[in-house]
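Hey,

The postdoc asked me to send both predictions to you directly instead of through the lab channel. I've kept everything plain text so nothing gets mangled by the mail client. Protein one:
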Amino acid sequence: MENNLPPIPGAWKLMLLGDGSPTRHLQLLTKKETSIKLIAMQSDAFSHKEAPNEIKQLKKPLIRRQVWIENSSNTLAWAESWWNIDQVTKNLSKREEPIWKNLTKDRSELFREVDNISIVNSKWLQEKFSSEGPFWSRNYRFFRNKKPLTIIREVFNPSIERWLGESGLKKFINL
């Protein structure tokens, strides 16, 4: 089977396309407790115009949750997720905790599918990350019992190159 992926460096390829938890991976890489800072969690009746297409697979009404992924000294990423209101109540009992901690507490089976990797450029992310854009981003879905549970988008701070190595992003800016 031929791999048609662009030449993204190995560690970044695992971060962007792997089916593990980036929050957990960042904790392992930085050797510091990784936590989230809840920015917002509210009804998303209009299904945010820039949301991934996959949110159409979720039963409405939807909740949109936005967080900073941090450790004691760094903002490592920004993430947002969309949930059916009943599923968020059932699956995110500790809203101040990372999704992976909430979803793995009962050891139930989950499947993650990466739908898209992209390059994002945003002034407000540049300010928070204290770094010039653009930034690597990815969208993925969690499935439980063959049904989409949540749609997630993550944008990574280039500062994590200190642990992952060069991201190779500059090769893709003009594509």
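Protein two:
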Amino acid sequence: MSTKSKSNRIYFLAICGTAMASLAAMLKKKGYDIYGSDENLYPPMSTFLEEQQIPVFKGFDPAHLDPAPDLIIVGNVISRGNVEIEEILDRHLPYMSLPEALRDFMIRGNRSIVVTGTHGKTTTTSLVAWIFDYAGKNPGFMIGGIPLNFGRGYQVGGGGDFILEGDEYDSAFFDKAAKFLRYMPDIGIINNIEFDHADIYKSLDDIKLAFRRFVNLIPRNGLLVVCRDNEAAVEVSGKAFCPVVTFGDSPQADWRAEQVVATATGSEFLVVRRGEKLGRTVLPLAGGHNIRNALAAMAVADHAGIKMEVILAALREFKGIKRRLEYVGEACGVELYDDFGHHPTAIKETLAAFRARFPRERIFALYEPRSATTRRNIFQKEFVGVFQDADYILVPPVNRPDKVPAGELFSCAQLAADLVQSGKQAAHLQDTAAMVAYLVEHLQTGDKVITFSNGPFDNIHKKLMDALKSKNS
């Protein structure tokens, strides 16, 4: 592979992550000469980069750095010992993290709107971006998922606003601070704060400290939008220098939803701001958690001067996000859904919304412990109460148990046993093949299957659909 020899050549080390590839595409659109490398090249990101005409080296080699690029953006999967990072350090080549690059190339000069929280970030960020875009504001944005209204998780924009999903995970091997501390927030949202990311945070207090630092970055003329229902979120917002607006179910919240009606495709509710009834809207997303996400987005849009009738109309046209309670397909009368949920609160709320949508159908929940936190036994007891709205629960082994310190491994067998003890139909099965076999034996027409994993779950959706069709052919 060859690359152009010109100024403003930016090299992405570990380019195939979703955020890295998205930023690469945005910078290419802005006129930079972009190329990169990664260890594993596979769809959909390899296809995406090829479509963007961004050349990529397969594997890591110091020779990729000749001639030297003007700047190297280092992904947070890269650690010391990588042959390219060692070459970069030896030669004093200029480098920065992904959050720093977003700040310097995309955020600076714009109003920065940053959505944070342990869960709900992707949906809320997508809602804010869609409302602003629907209102004709042409925002830039960077989102960790794919909003279906856009078909991509990024947009360069040009209207003076840049909207980001603000992750509390660390930035790079050389910058262990939370990503959102690099985003220069003018407007911030805190959906909720719970313990997560056990590989980098020791306690909930550690996480709250990161959020306090985030709050302390918002200028006096900015805005902080906080979930009134979450005690930790309210606590960290107590010393904000900017105005604070709240949302939630609490009677004390500034923004609330009343007269909520669950519909076949989502929710309908009356929007109330400090006692003033602003109008009814239909949100094509199910569950109280998504209504709260929408209220947060509405509060930001209202602050930005978008008319309420435009906000309400935009919500009605929202199409959702890929892998957030996403309908995957149907086989032999069985519907399959997929969700990115992995934290116990997120899974519980999603299942409650799913049950409200399908009150009489049998629900099969498939859960894969895969994240750095859920691989550990931190939430071993909490997970027993998470699946109360499912009829059957299947759990495979923990993904990559070698990543877990000795004595801290989550026990899938114990979870299944505890669920059975609580009266549920549950099983711990050895792999996805065994799960598919179990499902083919037990599923009936009208049943619903939903998977929870922050990874591909060994492509279980396709395997199950193929097996069901084969059985009935």
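Summary for protein two, as requested: The first helix runs from residue 18 to 29.

Thanks,
C.
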